[in-house]
Amino acid sequence: MINKVGVIGAGQMGNGIAHVMAVAGIDVVLKDVSNEQLEKGLKVIETNLQRQVGRGKLTEEEMASALTRINPTITDDLMSDVDLVVEAATENEEIKKVILADICVKLKPETIIATNTSSISVTRLAAVTDRPDQFMGMHFMNPVPVMQLVELIRGIATNEETFEKVKQLTTRLNKTPTPAEDFPAFIVNRILLPMINEAVYTLYEGVGSVRAIDTAMRLGANHPMGPLQLADFIGLDVCLAIMQVLYEGLADTKYRPCPLLVKYVEAGWLGQKSGRGFYDYTGDEPVPTR
Ligand SMILES: NC(=O)c1ccc[n+]([C@@H]2O[C@H](COP(=O)([O-])OP(=O)(O)OC[C@H]3O[C@@H](n4cnc5c(N)ncnc54)[C@H](O)[C@@H]3O)[C@@H](O)[C@H]2O)c1
């Protein structure tokens, strides 16, 4: 039974993962590189829990006890007795490999390691650990407290017991697990990201404005959010990283990242989190930039 979880990275995804674990009664060690990052993450958790209280989904007491279950830290020392580690750090293979290789020595032999990567090979990440059989992908969707799905990805060496334990945990979190094979970007992002990239090409080629493209897909395809707004929400750096993994991993030009997406990321226009992406978020209402 998984009763204590280490979450590495307190960003958009890591703080959401810590949130849903704590609400489910699981103790959490939340690690990031600086106290500043941890404080930011904890603030988001508190705001999101408060929103759930406001909507009657949680009581004040449940919120308070969830918060006491989350222990922030900048070292690996508190990871020594966790049953599961969920790595949710920056989508960069080299960064993840260093984190995973370093954490192994701190863990109990039976601890499972899961990665929340959106696109990187689970098998390749498993290979840098001392336990590829107890390693798998646990891919939460953004925003974690709201989204139902968790994709579960077996690496080539993942054993059945590991898969089953993580599947049971997913159900305990009131989420729906779905299995995916270890191919670049798995299922959701293999389909979603090329659509977003195509929306950026549509903008780049002048087929439509930001507003026209998002309105077209919301009202014409019944998507709850336009693809450019969704890209800003996911983070344009994350979108670009996933397209690069698809492009390199599947060696097919249909996955070529749009040059305009590359340029936005190079400019530091990363979407909502940086205040500007395809929309400008510095005012009261998001304003399209093109
Ligand atoms: N953003 C999404 O919509 C989304 C959805 C599903 C999965 N993911 C995946 O989740 C992971 C995290 O993405 P995110 O959007 O939360 O990114 P983010 O940039 O919001 O957060 C990443 C966090 O990792 C921290 N970090 C970096 N190096 C670290 C280290 N060595 N030790 C501890 N913490 C470290 C950073 O300081 C930052 O707080 C990525 O693998 C991404 O592909 C993202």
TrEMBL record:
Its EC number is 1.1.1.157. Keywords: Oxidoreductase. Residues 186-281 form the 3-hydroxyacyl-CoA dehydrogenase C-terminal domain. One of its GO terms (molecular function) is 3-hydroxybutyryl-CoA dehydrogenase activity. It comes from the Bacteria. Pfam families: 3HCDH, 3HCDH_N. Residues 4-182 form the 3-hydroxyacyl-CoA dehydrogenase NAD binding domain. InterPro entries: 3-OHacyl-CoA_DH, 3-OHacyl-CoA_DH_CS, 3-OHacyl-CoA_DH_NAD-bd, 3HC_DH_C, 6-PGluconate_DH-like_C_sf, 6PGD_dom2, NAD(P)-bd_dom_sf. Belongs to the 3-hydroxyacyl-CoA dehydrogenase family. This is 3-hydroxybutyryl-CoA dehydrogenase. It comes from Sneathiella marina.
